[in-house]
Design a protein that fits this description.
- Residues 57-81, 409-445 are annotated as: Disordered.
- The chain crosses the membrane at residues 894-915.
- Residues 409-424 have a biased composition (Low complexity).
- 4% of the residues lie in helices and 43% in strands.
- The protein has 924 residues and is mostly beta strands.
- The strands form 13 sheets. Strands 2, 4, 5, 7, 10, 12, 13, 18, 26 and 27 form a ten-stranded antiparallel β-sheet that branches. A six-stranded antiparallel β-sheet has the order 1-11-14-25-30-16.
- Strand 36 and strand 37 (552-559) form a beta hairpin.
């Protein structure tokens, strides 16, 4: 199966075979999980970008799952370097060869691919024919790219065998240690039904230990030798074993292009920084320390206890320790010679020679191998030229349980010097008798020599390194240190308690006697803090306060090598001085001087801790966010809390006090992105030094018309202990701890107008004169309770009525409780009957608006009356009846008979015209 991500989406080019093809399997073996590997074997392959990984895993033949060469059930998985599962296949017991896992994958990124084979049941392994290889972009096989740290295999990858010998495998593996050593491992005539091949620097390890046992042992599940195998583990892949290195076993010599993380270069062993340190001044007992720079190995410390310059005398001591990893090491010496007598501390010339040998121990373990007829060969290509093929083993645990085994090995041990393995050594047959008995009895009694056993063969490098350290004369030394649990970078507030600790360490090679310390509180502390004398404490000796200066004097007494003593005390900050605490303690024989650090040096003998007394102060300012507000609108205020000091302020509380008479449901920002009712305090505000927090208060202005003021005040009701009282800007007149602001709300404008006009400019005698009155509310607030009064002149007018907006007429000319909405008007019509007559008349009419609500501007009166500007006036003209006298008078002629007759006619005509006008007026 092909998967994206690190892999390309297509098949790789066809394979191009080289004359000497790279190995892709261990010949004639099936791969399984294995009990030693806890049921999972992992094979790794390093593939560069553009190269191809080919994996083929399948059962050898189908069946029930219990037959030779059949799978007992399990699974296989191919994983990319990024953890992506590229292919995964479950194998049922007895699955046919057509069921397979793997595929061909082209890497788009360089990395390590893993192929895992797992048993469903380690007693019935999955047993898969396997091939895992890497090819370049042209399809050429690349050797030295495939490895495992522990191969669980079954010999025999054929469907049938003419002889048992055909099951056997002969192959070579190539090992690389974690520090670059190289070993070539050869096996000839190897046959294992469910066996494991692994290489580590430990081999078989006794439970609870991390050192190699240097023994071959029964497998943990075996009951051989009273079940002693349960006391040992095969180290590969195990946790809890200090310094364990699991070696990579390559199918071919490691490719030279492998990265250092996979195949590091070998570097010769080194010992660095070798030293010895006494544990006390009373004896030479102590510890040898150093660093293995490049290679692990076995450390041998030779102690020249008599100081004769030789390390092989009868009094000289030899100590051994296995160092499984590079890095720091330590070896303890009890200060006694080889005969158990304490070496006198006054003896000169004692020295320590430390050597590292047996570098890169290589333990190759054959686990549950039924036969190994050609034995094993181990050839080292790094780590010195001597004994490059020497192998060691110790099978002595089997001495009392070999009697009923079907085969044996030539020698139970290799001897102290080991044996040359170049031709194959430490071998055994499946059955020495030739009777063809089954070598895989698995009963811990019978079977071949290797059945249910973990056979360990080991080798190591012949190179090494040597370093020498001398035991120096006793040299007492005291180091003084001063510290405080209060961070020096944090400014302090008045009232804060600052604990100090003075520590004396006897770090020389001899005991220190009569240690005395002076703590100079008067030189930088007491101007800004007070000593809490009750807090003074010492772990040994006694301390006192000089009443004249305030200095502390501590007589600690003697301290053995490695011992420490302490004095502790507290001061309480007042902040009355230079705003700095500089606390220096010195050894009594050192001149006073403030030090650069909290640890004294040989040059000064003083240690100093510094603190800064900070300024804790907040500023509060409340302002209005708008110059004015409107009834029914919104009003807002801003509160600014600024940290004007040098110390962060935490858990500050701001309390806003809005006046609720005219501000409805005011809210305030809570400093955390939300809002809350303004009547609730805003708590938990954190304000860094130099920073500020702004809180906005807003609410709806109550409906109304009168001028009001919206006052708002705020205060800081909680701040950190030790802070100065807040600075208040815009302080309230009645309480300077509050900041005040207010917003005026102007009144809603009230403005009325009154206008009276005549419906017609003239009306005849006996007609109806009419007037129009318009009352308008030109403001923004309603007018209620108005009274409109019409005042007609009744000398020539009767039957006067008034109507509103075309409604019914009324003779009551005073309209009370008149209401006008804002920006509205109403119209009244006043009419009356003009009296009969012949003379010209003027009929005046006036109207007045009273009971105007308080707060309204003076009413705008249009057409004001001449004698009363508060009333609006209009008039109607009634012309006279008859125009003759007027004409005669205008001619100046005497009224004779003709004239009189003409006058009669004119009067008659005038009367006729008047009748016509009156009729016309009525009909119109």
């Amino acid at each position: 199966m092909l998967v994206g991500g690190l892999l390309g989406g297509g098949l790789a080019p066809p394979r191009a075979y080289a004359a000497d093809a790279a190995h892709t399997t261990i010949e004639n073996t099936l791969l399984q999980g294995g009990s030693t590997n806890a049921g999972v074997t992992t094979v790794s392959a390093w593939v560069q970008k553009g190269e191809t990984l080919r994996v083929d895993l399948h059962p050898l033949k189908g069946g029930s799952g219990a037959g030779e060469g059949e799978t007992g059930g399990g699974s296989a998985r191919v994983t990319a370097p990024d953890g992506t599962v590229l292919d995964e296949q479950d194998f049922a017991a007895g699955a046919a060869p057509s069921v397979s896992a793997g595929g061909t994958f082209v890497a788009t990124e360089t990395g390590v691919f893993e192929i895992q084979v797992s048993d469903d049941d380690v007693t019935a392994p999955v047993n898969l024919a396997w091939s895992i290889g890497v090819e370049d972009a042209r399809g050429a096989a690349l050797a030295g790219r495939v490895w495992s740290t522990s191969y669980a295999i079954q010999s025999g990858a054929k469907e049938s065998y003419a002889t048992p010998e055909e099951r056997r495998s002969s192959f070579t593996l190539h090992a690389v240690t974690e520090t670059g050593a190289r070993y070539e491992l050869g096996l000839r005539g190897y046959d294992g039904v469910a066996s494991t091949l692994q290489a580590t620097n430990k081999g078989n390890v006794r439970v609870g230990s991390s050192d190699p046992s240097y023994l071959s042992v029964p497998m943990p599940q075996s009951i051989e030798a009273d079940g002693i195998g349960a006391q040992y583990v095969q180290a590969s892949g195990r946790s809890g074993i200090d310094g364990l290195q699991t070696y990579k076993l390559f199918l071919d010599p490691p490719s030279p292009d492998l990265p250092e993380s996979i195949a590091p270069a070998y570097r010769a062993p080194t010992i660095e920084a070798l030293a010895f340190r006494r544990s006390s001044a009373s004896s030479d007992a102590g510890v040898v320390t150093g660093v293995l720079g490049t290679q692990p190995g076995t450390l041998v410390v030779d102690v020249d206890t008599d100081g004769d310059g030789s390390y092989d005398g009868e009094l000289d001591v030899h100590l051994t320790r296995i160092a499984g990893t590079t890095g720091p090491f330590s070896v303890d010496w009890d200060g006694r010679d080889a005969q158990g007598r304490a070496v006198d501390v006054a003896d000169a010339g004692v020295s320590f020679r430390t050597s590292v040998g047996r570098t890169n121990e290589f333990h190759f373990t054959r686990v549950d191998a039924e036969s190994s007829t050609g034995g094993v060969s181990v050839v080292r290509s790094t780590g010195g030229g001597d004994g490059s093929s020497t192998v060691h083993w110790d099978d002595s645990l089997f001495a009392d349980s070999n009697a009923e085994r079907y085969s044996s090995t030539a020698a139970a041990t290799s001897g102290a010097s080991g044996a040359d393995s170049s031709g194959g050594i430490h071998r055994w047959e499946g059955d020495d008798s030739g009777q063809g008995r089954a070598p895989n009895e698995n009963d811990s009694v019978h079977g071949s020599y290797g059945d249910l056993r973990a056979i360990d063969d080991w080798a190591f490098g012949s190179d090494g390194a040597v370093a020498v350290a001398r035991l120096d004369p006793l040299a007492p030394h005291m180091t003084i240190a001063k510290s405080s649990s209060v961070d020096s970078a944090t400014p302090l507030l008045p009232g804060v308690r600052v604990p100090y600790r003075v520590t004396l360490t006897s770090d020389g090679s001899g005991d220190y006697s009569d240690a005395v310390v002076i703590d100079y509180l008067d030189e930088g502390v007491l101007d800004d803090a007070d000593l809490d004398a009750d807090s003074l404490w010492t772990s040994q000796g006694a301390a006192s306060v000089d009443p004249a200066t305030g200095r502390l004097s501590w007589s600690a007494g003697g301290l053995a090598v490695g011992a420490t003593a302490e004095m502790t005390f507290d001061v309480v900050v007042t902040g009355a001085g230079d705003d700095a605490l500089v606390n220096t303690a010195c050894l009594a024989d050192a001149p006073f001087a403030h030090a650069e650090s909290g640890t004294g040096t040989d040059a000064t003998g003083c240690a100093t801790v510094r603190h800064v007394v900070g300024d804790g102060s907040l500023l509060l300012r409340k302002t209005a966010t708008q110059p004015s507000a409107e009834h029914g609108g919104t009003a807002g205020f801003d509160i600014v809390v600024a940290n004007t000091g040098s110390i962060d302020a935490t858990d500050v509380t701001v309390t806003d006090v809005p006046t609720l008479d005219h501000l409805i449901e005011p809210s305030i920002e809570d400093g955390a992105g939300g809002t809350q009712p303004a009547v609730e305090p805003v708590t938990g505000l954190d304000i860094p030094a130099g920073g500020q927090v702004s809180l906005h208060v807003s609410g709806r202005v109550a409906d109304g018309y009168e001028a009001v003021t919206l006052p708002n005040r705020a205060s800081i009701t909680h701040q950190p202990e030790g802070f100065d009282p807040p600075t208040i800007e815009n302080a309230c007149a009645d309480d300077a701890s509050f900041s005040c602001a207010e917003i005026p709300v102007p009144p809603v404008e009230g403005r009325l107008s009154l206008e009276k006009t005549a419906l017609d400019e003239s009306v005849d005698h006996g007609g109806r004169a009419g007037f129009r009155i318009v009352v308008a509310n030109e403001g923004a607030r309603p007018a209620e309770g108005l009274t409109l009064t019409d005042v007609p002149e009744l000398t020539h007018l009767s039957d006067v009525t008034i109507s509103q907006d075309g409604g019914p007429a009324s003779s009551d000319l005073s309209i009370e409780d008149l209401t006008l909405a804002a920006d509205s008007s109403t119209m009244f019509t006043v009419t009356g009957r003009v009296a009969d007559g012949v003379d010209a008349w003027i009929i005046p009419n006036r109207a007045r608006l009273t009971d105007v609500p308080e707060g309204f501007e003076p009413t705008t009166v249009r057409h004001p009356c001449a004698d009363d500007g508060g009333a609006s006036c209009a008039q109607v003209v009634v012309p006279p009846v008859g125009l003759l006298p007027t004409v005669l008078a205008s001619t100046g002629a005497a009224a004779g008979p003709l004239a009189a007759a003409a006058g009669v006619l004119l009067l008659a005509g005038g009367a006729l015209r008047a009748l016509r006008r009156r009729h016309s007026t009525r009909t119109s």
